[in-house]
Amino acid sequence: MIQTCAANIFLSWFRIFTLTELAGKEPSPNPASPHNTMQAIQMNETGGPEVLKLATIDKPTLTADDHILVKNIYASLNFIDTVVQRGKIPQKLPLVPGMEGGGGNVLVHVGAGGMGQLLSKISSYRGANVVATVSTASKAELSKANGAKVAVRYSDDAGNAKDLVQDALAASTDGEGFEVVYDSVGKATWDRDKEVLKPRGHLVLYGDASGSPDPVSPGWFAGKSLIFTRPVLFDYITPGEFQSRARASLSGSR
After folding, report:
1. Element (H, E) at 247
2. Is the pLDDT assigned to residue 219 strictly greater than 70?
3. Is the pTM of this model over 0.85?
4. Element (H, E) at 55
């Protein structure tokens, strides 16, 4: 699996490198509109590295007063880009691929809750395939309206419990699980979280609506080399740190 991932990334990177080298150091402007176009790697269909084409496209325009336009000199190629390229995450075509720092599969429990909606929005914005767990059909629609691509229900309309693990795995892009699970349920979902996480996945427990999970030994995480955290809000907003970060954010937006 690792060798396949590496091969996909290398072949796509080599394709992009070759195309940009052939184009030269400076993009060739469109004579009809030299100031409103740019060159970009674009795909009109999904498939292997051969679907990546060097194209002349319109420059993006600002759509809001609080938006800025950034010129990229260099951009990285992430594994998630090859997943999109192969059609594993459906996207509207034509597409200029690029999901810097994001991507992957994220499972959000209680996707229709306030925090679940926020996590789904942020993860989706960062390019992740978000799968949420919910209890009802109406909550499934609410969750999908806030960033989840798929909403998995705990039970059907008759109240019969569903196989959460099987349904969640089927909703991940490769059927192999999730890089991150955000869990505010606790005891009722704890053991199933481990089943749906990929090796070296992150388990974030930030609530225990169904009760605290039973104590476990460090060996519980060793089966997949999982990374576990139990964040508490107040540890992330100490006055000095919070104020300095807020000032830095505000000064950077002026």
Report:
1. helix 239-252
2. yes
3. no
4. strand 52-58
